[in-house]
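Example A, followed by Example B.
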Amino acid sequence: MLGVIFSFFSSEVEKRRTIKKCGLLSIILGLIVGVYWILRVIKDNVFFKIVGPSYQPVAKILSLLIMIPLIFLYSHLVDKAPRHRMFYSLATFYGCGMLLFSYLLNHPIIGLSNTQASPDRIVGWLLYFFVESFGSLMVALFWSFTSDISTPQSAQQGYPIVALGAQVGAFACTLLLRNSVRTYGAPYVILVASFLTFLIIGFVKTFIFIEPDAKDIKVTKLKTKYKKRTGFFEGLRLMMQNPYLFGIFIIVLFYGVINSILDFQFKLLANAAFVDHKAFGAYLFDAAIWINGLAVLAIIFGVNNITKRLGITTSLIFLPVLIGAAVIVLGLRADIAISFWIVVLCKAINYALNQPTKEQLYIPTSTDAKYKSKAWIDVFGSRGAKSVGSFINIWQAFCGPMMFVFIS
């Protein structure tokens, strides 16, 4: 990986332009993913403590339903608005939303000071849905924007750099705020996340200023390719009619189901071990630091060479094999330390190898596929998979263990 980066600077002008473009994109994605990792840790921390861990599978299922009107709005906006303005609008909305949640969680009655967990505490539910939508829409918009301005050759050169920026951003944000959540609590951490979200707008503006062609491409494609078919279900129709796109959906679905089960078992064990919400949050931040730290190291030391040497198919098969082994191990011994490292390793490999590889699959597709079908795959494929996994978790809670995963 480092050799690839250094070769860019000693190469021709076109490659230097690629490294500059991908460098800016990596900063933008690093901020998006960094903010998302902050929020996802806080989301589980808050929900487990003020709503209750047994309701998390229900929240995952409901989040799929909540995403339906949001993806409808997203599909409408990508027909009307240039992509960079979509970034401005979404970042502003989420940044302001974080300011509001920071205030609410600091409230003595409805916030974290009230340690009585109850499903009636709506702030925990709203924060959960808010964070889930951020992770789906902001990341999907970024990768659609990036694949739209990339060629297969530039993607092979630049996507590892962008993926590295994402993991560096996630690692840096979780590392820097780990002690803050233990000392000051979730409201302060969400306040910092709000500032970083507004910072995304500035970097997107910088990217458009340096790469004005990106702005022109968006407007042209909107005018020429979105006239015939529009609507909420257009992305679903394209996915169901195209075996290639449906195959991407299956990849997302498989990982999401198993990961949802493993992740829930890990957090149940952690929640039982750490009663105080600050200690629980710090432990979840520890997991996030290890996940993203290992992902950064994997990218730096060339995990992307698996894709180059063995092909995309082999790269995509590697993670399911690893997850299958993890399920068996956790089924044999449900221990918090074992669960911690299983989740860390599986997620690190996913972010370092599986995600960048999967995103390259969209490059040869149409603009409709990149924006509309991808939104359905990323949002409903991911959320649908988590819902299936949540049904299994609910079944385990009330009817006993299923498959190989259980808490002894």
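Example B, a separate protein, is given below in the same form.
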Amino acid sequence: MRKLLSTDLDGTIIFNATVSRPDLDAMERWRDAGHILVPNTGRSVSALRNALRGSGLVFDYSVLYTGAVLTGRDYEVLKARTLPDGLAEEVLDLLDGEAGVTVFVTTLDGDLQLYDSIGSDTALLTLFSRASRADLAGRTVVGVPLRIADPVLLARVQAEIGRRWGGDAAVAFRNQDFLDVVPAGSSKGAGLTSLVGLLVADDGPCRGERIETWSIGDSWNDISMHEAADHAVAMNDSPPEVLAVCEGTTPSVASLIDSILTASD
């Protein structure tokens, strides 16, 4: 049976901006065995490209923007949800003047930083161009990632986003000290389910096949992905809420892949 591994990126295969050689080799073995490798992340197209630069890592498909966008191997968009016009500006109004906050915007053709009271490091500024409200004109916004240093403020903002837009326009998922605001109906789990549906559809590349799905991740925004997968595995240091929805833990992607491939032999 063909298997699909849906893997989080940051804190799962990317540590200190690097993918380890054992993980790279294991993911190559996974694809060589005929299985499907998919990143499932809050990152945008451009941020994923940047993260993989120089690694040689190849994915078959991608679930990006916390499930709002599905892409093929060459990052061609297969399916996309977008935020309503004006919502990014309203989120910016909500946080304008707050300390310890950075407001980003992700689009299909580039990523912007609209507000920063934290002090962005050089790594972030290679991903997000400094911009203003005026730069949003004519852009289709997919997500509004928020970095919020104070966990009390983060929880309050997440609740307020749910109150204002939950169920109708947008939803916010927590990932460490980030909130990813994405179109309503989007989640890592919804993205995984949608991708599998595309693959096994009558006109899909895996038409009529039964695909066994595996997930691996380390944070709260991975919970829906774990719930959607046939088999869910958490990184060892995941929060209790993540561990509660998984059938086991692993120290690394390489360790998980080796155990699955060995069991399949």
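On Example B: Residues 26 and 255 are 8 Å apart (CA to CA).
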